[in-house]
Amino acid sequence: MQITTYVFEKPGAHNTDQTLQVAFERAKALGIRQVVVASSHGGTALKTQALMGPAGIRVIAVSIGHGWESLGWCMAPEERARCEAAGVRVVTGIHALGDGVGSAFSEKHGGRAPEEIVRETLYRFSQGMKVAVECILMAAEAGLLKMDEEVIGIAGSGGGADTAIVCKPAYPRTFHELEIREILAKPRVLSE
After folding, report:
1. Sign of the CA dihedral 19, 50, 85, 146?
2. Going by CATH, does the domain composed of 6-65+91-187 fall within 3.20.190.10?
C-alpha cells in the first residue's frame, strides 16, 4: 500500500483546510465513518462537520476540561450549543494523557506518571499527534466510538488542525490496544 503523508513546513491553524481535506479523502477511501477532532471553541469542529457530515461521517469534538477555564481554553456553553445544533457530538473531560491526579503528584514531588511519559513521547511527532491520540482515548471513554471500526483523529498545534491520523481506537485503560495505523498529516517542525 502506498499513501501520501502531508508534511507541513510549519505547525498551526493555517494548515486546517488542507488537513481536513486530506482526512476526508482518506476517510472516504477507507470507508471510515467516525472522526474525532480537537476543538477548544468549536471552530475546527464546525469546519469538520461542514465537510464530512454531509457524507455521513460522524464528527465528535473533544474540548478541553474545565480545569483550564482560567486560561480561556474551554468551550463556552453557546459554542457547545452551536456545535451540537450542527450535528457534532461534544465531549469535555479530563485529559487522558495527563493533567489528572498523577500530574498533581508529579508537580509536587517530581517524577512522571506513565501517561505523562506517553504524552511526551507523542509530542516528539507534534503537539497535534499527542492531542489526536488523547482525543480518541477520551471519545472512546465517553462511549462515542464504535470500537470495532477505525477512526480518524484530527488535532493541531495551539489552534486549528495540522495533524491527522488513522487509528484503531482504544480506551485509556486498554491503551496498549491502540494502533496508529496511518499518519495522514503533520507539521515538519514542532514550533514556529
Report:
1. negative
2. no
